[in-house]
Amino acid sequence: xxxxxxxxxxxxxAPFDPRQAALGRLLFYDPILxxxxxxxxxxxxxxxxxxxxxxxxxxxEGGQGVGPERTAPDGPNRIAKRVPRHAPAxxxxxxxxxxxxxxxxxxxxxxxxxxxxxxPAEEWLPEGLDSLLAAQAIFPLVAQFxxxxxxxxxxxxxxxxxxxxxxxxxxxxRVRGLPEYASLFQQAFDLETPQAVTIAHIANALxxxxxxxxxxxxxxxxxxxxxxxxxxxxxxxxMELFYGKAGCRTCxxxxxxxxxxxxxxGLPPFGPGRTRVFDPIARDTGRMAESNDAADAYRFRTPSLxxxxxxxxxxxxxxxxxxxxIIRHHLDPEQGLETWRPxxxxxPQAPWLHEIDFVIRQxxxxxxxxxxxxxxxxxxxxxxxxxxLVSFMEAxxxxxxxxxxxxxxxxxxxxxxxx
Length: 419
Fold this sequence. Notes:
Layout: H1 18-28, H2 41-44, E1 100-101, E2 107-109, E3 117-118, H3 132-137, H4 144-148, H5 155-162, H6 168-176, H7 179-189, H8 199-213, H9 220-225, H10 233-242, E4 262-263, H11 288-291, E5 300-301, H12 323-331, H13 333-339, H14 354-357, H15 364-373, H16 383-394
Antiparallel strand pairs: 1-2, 2-3, 4-5
């Protein structure tokens, strides 16, 4: 078995200001940051779902409810598209080693634009962002099907339609115009006047909250690494497989089980896809859409496996409802593509979208392209060994940390409904 990683201590994480984290908690659950004031960050990254949403492809702007109970109401304002990718859990994103964000890595460290970051805003990224995590936080706010809404529905969506950075000052003005937020920002950031509040302050508060709230280093695996407790026999066998014969550590390396790289697993495609302007079909080319390098086609970022047993379904599109299912796919991706069935996807009901949900699977050439891109080799394991791997992944679940630290607020300064 390969050498185990060193345990993660407080030094693994960037520092944060508790005042900013407390403010970020309110912003995280406040729908004021959405175009139509009807969805928050917490809607799709909820405490009840351990910072995820529990479905394959969620219903963003225009939905009702939380988690697997969230619905897409019919009617003249019904949604036109599902969120094209699975909402990832937020565990340990405040760790210093996390330098790439989103499934396709579209927020990362880079010198290309003079601000130290490569993002969809390029040189128009707002000044004053303290971290990549803060930069990541502002993009769902201006995504049409996540939080912004459709052009013509509100001033935020209209501004995004002109240029991405035109929307953020509108949101900042909304927030600083509320007396309670104005006071909290002045205290948390030592500002002289509320007029100084910008989207960067909002982003930095959100990042402080995520850094503080979603830390998980108290799992049975962590205790084992620190010499404070033994794993169960099944967990120990699974760990030996993970770091040995099964080859999981090749990509899921380090204390948080990720190499922060991109790999093509051939996960069964479905949904609207995160299409580019010129894509003629509902496909998702993954990292290639960001890098414009054909070698990156259908590659997606390796997720951390912390609390993975608590946050199904699995994959960049939530293709597999169980850990055993996603493990079997990793062991033989081509077989997984062949045997996967649409019933395995957990899609909130929206009958008017059914025609597009699985249409990509009928495209013979696109399916062949995805098969050719697979870059992991098959591994033969028994069902008993798969069960042991599942047991080890369950040992990556945090104890008290799984519930967060500050928790979900009962109310927010805007007075809007908290999901």
